Every structure is written in structure tokens, then in C-alpha cells.
Amino acid sequence: MRLLIVEDEQTLLQQLSEQFRNEGFVVDTAADGDTGLYLAREYPLDLAVVDLGLPGRSGLELLRTIRSEGSRLPVLVLTARDGWQDRVNGLENGADDYLTKPFHAAELLARVNALLRRAAGWAHPVVPFGGYTLDTANKQVRLDDTPIPLTAFEYRLLEYLALHPERVISKQELTEHLYPDEADRDSNVIEVFIRRLRRKLDPDGAHQPVVTHRGLGYTLRQSPDHDQ
After folding, report:
1. Model confidence over 125-159: pLDDT tens digits?
2. Which of 175, 150, 146 is nearest to 160 (CA)?
3. Could you tell me if 114 and 163 are in contact, meaning their C-beta atoms sit under 8 angstroms apart?
4. SS3 assignment for 114-133
5. 182-199: per-residue pLDDT in tens?
6. Cα(99)–Cα(83) distance, rounded to whole angstroms?
7. Which domains does the chain have, with CATH numbers?
8. pTM above the 0.90 mark?
9. 169 in Cβ contact with 210 (< 8 Å)
10. b/e 181-210 (16+ beta carbons within 10 angstroms → b)
């Protein structure tokens, strides 16, 4: 998942970037509202964490602008302003959630994961697909009660597919959301990881959870009782 953090306090910005990268996110950062707006417009983001008190364009202005342009990007407002009117203003201008400083890192992570699930139509942290379950809180995958060990990148790839059900996801989209800009992107690497996922999820070919649409991309097979 690709996350934008817009925060002018450099120490906090660095801490948040490190925290989310350690959790497997691709992280883009901005220290002012104008740069944040540019990245929100130009980058293929999954969620943004935006401080209100930014130099130049405020976080509220950034939020108001992207919503007026039709953006549905999930946004969590992170700020030292704890008055009820500030919270109301943020929510009424399009914020999806609100967290005041100081905060616990675990709570911020939990709120971000919850927003990502809701954006995909899931309220519960456990997402079923094709007889499997993907636990987004604990980053675990199971078939029935049997855990399936995955590398960090394999999990991120599977999670992206699981949180975008019924869509054909191209290799280009996967590379944009799973690799940082400075990375040496090779879409053929996605094919390698898809093959690894298939071997680990379905070694005997009984379930075939990952469906290839030749020349288009991939979907994750949903269980018959899939209910968003």
C-alpha cells in the first residue's frame, strides 16, 4: 500500500515514515501543503495522513482542494488541535478520520489499516477470499486453520489483491503501489512473486486463488459467500 504523509515537524515526519516503511508501506512525504497537494494529485496513493498546521497551504485547504477535484483518497487528519470545532471542520471538509497529537503509534497504524479496509468495503480486519483468510491486523494468511508463511513482499502483494476484489489489477498498478519511486521497477518481477504466491497458497493446484487475465493483470478468486 502506498501512503502519503504531510507533516512539517521533521522529527515526527521521519518517525512516521520509518514506522510505516517497517510495516511494509511505500511512503511518500511532504513537509508543506503545496508539495502535499502535488503528490496527492500526481501519485497513485492508497491513503494520506495530513497535518492541519502546515506552512503555505494548510492541511484543511489541501483536503478541501482534493475533495473539490473529486478525489476519494482516504485521509486521516493528524494534528495538535484538539478542539471539537477543529475535528468538525476536518470531517466536514472531507477527512475520513481524525487523530490528535500526542498519539500512540499502534493506534495510528490501526486507524490507517481500518481506513484502507473500509475503502475496499471491509469493516472486519479478516478478509476472506477463495477459502482463505487474510488477517490485515496481524498480517497473516490461513487456509482453514493452517497458517501460510509469506515474505513481507509476498504478503503486501496478496493484501493489495485482496483489498481490491473483483478488479483486474495490472502489473503496472502493482509496481506503482508496492515499490517506492526510487526503486528499480521491473514489472516482470511481479510475475515471479505471483508464481511464488501460487506455490505457497496452492501447492497442489486445488484452489487456484490467483487468476491471470492474459495481457491485463490479476484478480483474486473470491469465495462464493463473499459479502462486502
Report:
1. 898 888 899 999 888 999 988 999 999 889 999 99
2. 175
3. no
4. HHHHHHCCCCCCEEEECCEE
5. 555 666 788 999 999 999
6. 12
7. 2-119 (3.40.50.2300), 126-220 (1.10.10.10)
8. no
9. no
10. eeeeeeeebbeebbeebbeebbeeeebebb
